[in-house]
Design goal:
Length: about 180
């Protein structure tokens, strides 16, 4: 997966410098609001968690502390993706499978960066926040706002049986 430099996060509030690079806060903006309260709240928490990890790296916090923050960020990310996917499935969003694939690709990349971090490359935690921050901003703008608009349009109000079966086959959902 190729990531464009245009996805790099830039904001107005300098946080500090790492390796000669000025770090900035990940800024939540109203333009990211989907109008779906639980999704917007989770997005805000992800931005805050990214800031927390970046701040810990900039201030050279102990690796164990950063590790815990990274693990929490990854868990929150997975929880958020499950929530989004459930909402999209419930509303029969036609691009759900592609959206799930985007989520899977991000998790794979985060796991790769986390593995490198665990192998003593401390800068990987910072790379993870930069990568995820850019990805998150782009994904909200290009993907999440699209499904939010679809849901708010009322085009479909119940899950498509074919879509649910496809998700079941992929192991993306289970029936209790």
């Amino acid at each position: 997966m190729k990531v464009s430099r245009t996805f790099c996060v830039r904001a107005a509030t300098p946080l500090g410098q790492v390796g000669g690079v000025t770090m900035v806060k990940f800024a939540w903006k109203s333009q990211y609001e989907t109008g779906i309260p639980i999704i917007d709240e989770q997005h805000k928490r992800l931005f805050a968690a990214l800031d927390q990890v970046q701040d810990a790296v900039v201030h050279e916090s102990p690796k164990d502390e950063i590790r815990g923050m990274v693990q929490a960020l990854m868990a929150d990310t997975r929880e958020h993706f499950r929530t989004e996917e459930a909402i999209m499935a419930h509303h029969g969003f036609p691009d759900l499978l592609a959206h799930i694939r985007e989520h899977e690709l991000l998790v794979e990349k985060l796991e790769e960066l986390n593995q490198r971090f665990e192998e003593s490359q401390d800068s990987m935690a910072l790379m993870m926040t930069t990568f995820m921050g850019g990805w998150l901003r782009h994904h909200i703008s290009e993907g999440d706002l699209n499904y939010a608009q679809y849901i708010k349009s009322g085009q479909v109000t119940a899950s498509s049986p074919d879509l649910l079966l496809a998700l079941w086959d992929q192991g993306a959902i289970t029936f209790l």
